Amino acid sequence: MNKTSAGKTPAKYGKIVLNILITLAVYAVMMVVIQGGMLSRQMTSIIIPCCINVMLAVSLCLLVGYLGELTLGHAGFMSIGAYAGALLTNYLDMPPVAELLIGMLAGGIIASVFAVVIGLPVLRLKGDYLAIVTLGFGEIIRSVINSLEFTGGAKGLSGIGTYATYKNFTFVYIFVILTILLIANLVHSRHGRAITAVRDNYIAAEAIGIHVGRFKTMAFVISAFFAGLAGVIYAHNVGILKPANFDYNKSIEILVMVVLGGMGNIKGSIIAAIILTLLPEVLRSAADYRMLLYSIVLIAMMLFNNSRFKLAIVEKRNLKKAAEIQKEGE
Amino acid sequence: MKKWGKAVSFIMAASLVVASLTACSGSGETTADTTAAGETSAAAGTETFLIGGIGPLTGSAASYGISVEQGAWVAIDEINAAGGVKVGDTTYMLDMVFEDDEATEDKAIQAYNTVMDEGAQVIMGAVTSGACIAITPLTLQDGILQITPSGSAEACIANDNAFRICFSDPEQGRAMADYAIDSLGYTKIAVLYNNSDEYSTGLQTAFEEEVKAKGGEIVASESFGADDVDFNTQLSSIRSTDAEVIYVPAYYQAATYISNQAKEMGMEIPFIGSDGWDGVLGTVTDASTVEGAIFSSPFCASVDDERVQNFVKAYGEANDGAVPDQFAADAYDTVYTIKAAMEQAGSIESEDMIAAMTEITVNGLTGDAITFDASGAAEKDVRFVEIVDGAYQYREE
């Protein structure tokens, strides 16, 4: 990730090919187990939630990890997308996939429109202040949805077509890959460098001519767009939306995935999102102690992430890489 | 030294787990016993019929799910102790798996799929409305009989295979309105409800419509939010009207604050409430603040009725002296409904049991003769409880 050499070295091509292969391999394996009925029903029903959480975690990773701004309103954007998409597909009468596509586009766009409206004034704040304001924003969205008539209020919005179940895994998977691809590419692009520059030292960034406000808003809007997409998939996976599910706990759940994955590490976010979605299900056999074990595993993983043991592994790997690069140079 | 510190913290974390495991083992053992009992009788030439329960065991709604699970176990133990359920030549012993849905929709789907993986033959759940609605398309697809003990939203039983034990919110609101006007003789009524809660808003809407249809008058309709503790503004504005009675469709926590603050303000207007009021005597500091309050309730643990008291006793013995609430009673009735459906159908196939549901009459704790109509709703008398001398009492018609 830190390679600064211009042009594409063979090693970099190799990496791209490897990523494509991994993507295809994961898809092939998933399709085989789904079509072959090799998974239990419990595990099949967890596939799409995993995909949704990956999208949410990766999009939040852009904000928290790369822009370096702590936001606690991600569930708010997710709910805007979910409600917008669901209301639209309820209204439309088309083939499911077409409805879903339109719904997702609308959900994402409306979520990003809200992000612009909220982002412009709010992003003047930094650190803790921003966290509190976005937390407030998420709660406001929830209260507004709660009191509106056409969203179903506290009763929730039901009767949403369940188009995005594991049967439509291909569709959802494409969007997951798109999310990861777009955000990973953005982060490694010129704009992405600007975003990380803002994180590292915004005075220096401003001094070299980076428009801090613009890049902050851009990251905010893109992140909200993908949260909106994830929301639409959620709505069409579950079939009913309730405002109570999009409270700050949901935002924090997503944040935990990002933090656990290592701030500013997309791969980490993906892995953490999958683990944290699977964990409560895998622990079902522990019955009453499920949530207790879940928390303990979280703590243990956090301790491991910051332990000298892990640092040693990372250091070793980095040294090896450096040696390889040096060899190539020779 | 740092390494040692880490080791110590791991050991402490581990001992915490062990401590909490032993602390909780009380309730765990009863479950283990019942399963063991089911298995031994299964070995004696009978078969096991597995109920799949779904409800919140963790999270803010956990108390409802736990009540349902415990109430259902009381009924299952009773039925198994009495020799199980006879269907044709086979005797079935009941058993149950109960999965946590955290009262959320996505987790409910996973919980449903988990109980299906474990071989559930009938679904008891989900406990909360949203979670219940989320699993209805799946149960319909599987063609399995689904009975929710407490999912009160109308959409919970939209499908033909879904039934419910409790009243729906609109039914309860209408019943209270009828009772307030016809039996209690009130005409000018104020309403104070929680507008962030579907239970409260569902009751309030139906109540107000029915009162207007009956020729009564809603003189004030005031709302409050979740977790509110100060109701002086709403009560003041109600006081300025000529309301004869205040309808508070809310849970007992809110009812406690409301009745107390009304008394402090010197208001003499009586209260009527919904089944969420059950438990209010446990939280008021001065029972006189709720004296004379009347609320609709399908079940009340402290009334003087032999069957209710037997249930309360069995429930308390199994759960360290806990007192069952309405959810536990609903679950108890759900299990007996399943038993009745099995016997009536003469089969354990969901298709036959669904057909039998409209033919059965269940003598339950929440109603003397519960029957089900084709829509899936339970038909039973609405009961009203009055607080007299600081104790609950069923009101005679």
CATH superfamily placement of the largest domain in chain B: Response regulator
SSE string of chain A, helices as H and strands as E: HHHHHEHHHHEHHHH
Most residues in contact: chain pair: A-B, 41 and 36 residues
Radius of gyration of chain A: 21 Å
Q: pLDDT under 50 segments of chain B (min length 5)? A: 15-44
Describe the main β-sheet of chain A briefly. Answer: 2 strands, antiparallel
Number of helices of chain A: 13
Spatially, the strands of the biggest sheet of chain B line up as: 8-7-9-10-11-15-16
Q: How does the overall form of chain B come out from the CA principal axes?
A: elongated
Major sheet of chain B: 7 strands, mixed
Structural class of chain A: mainly alpha
State the secondary-structure class of chain B: alpha/beta
How would you describe this structure in keywords?
heterodimer; A: 330 residues; mainly alpha; 2 domains; two-stranded antiparallel sheet; 13 helices; 2 strands; disordered N terminus; B: 397 residues; alpha/beta; Rossmann fold; seven-stranded mixed sheet; six-stranded mixed sheet; 12 helices; elongated
Q: What does this protein look like?
A:
The complex is a heterodimer of chains A (330) and B (397). Chain A has helices at 10-35, 41-67, 74-91, 96-122, 127-147, 169-187, 190-200, 202-207, 212-238, 248-260, 266-282, 290-305, 308-329; strands at 157-158, 240-241. Chain A is mainly α. Chain A has a two-stranded antiparallel sheet with strand order 1-2. In chain A, helix 2 (41-67) packs antiparallel against helix 11 (266-282) and helix 7 (190-200) packs across helix 9 (212-238). The longest helix of chain A is centred in the first third of the chain and has 27 residues, at 41-67. The radius of gyration of chain A is 21 Å and the shape is globular. With 397 residues, chain B is an alpha/beta fold. Chain B has 2 domains: 27-167 and 308-379, Rossmann fold (3-Layer(aba) Sandwich); 170-297, 3-Layer(aba) Sandwich (Rossmann fold). Chain B contains 12 helices and 16 strands. Chain B has helices spanning 2-43, 62-81, 105-117, 129-142, 169-183, 198-213, 232-239, 252-264, 280-283, 306-318, 326-345, 350-357, and strands spanning 47-55, 85-87, 90-100, 122-124, 146-148, 162-164, 188-194, 217-224, 245-248, 271-273, 294-296, 361-362, 370-372, 378-379, 384-388, 391-394. In chain B, helix 2 (62-81) crosses helix 11 (326-345), helix 5 crosses helix 6 (198-213) and helix 11 (326-345) packs across helix 12 (350-357). Chain B starts with a helix and ends with a strand. The model of chain B is unreliable at 15-44 (pLDDT under 50). Chain A binds chain B through residues 40-42, 44-46, 49, 143, 146-147, 153-156, 158-159, 162, 234, 237-242, 244-245, 280-281, 284, 287-293, 296, 299-300, 303, 307, and chain B through 6, 9, 13, 17, 20-21, 24, 27-28, 57-58, 99-100, 104-107, 109-110, 113-114, 116-117, 129-130, 133-134, 137, 153, 155, 195-198, 201-202.
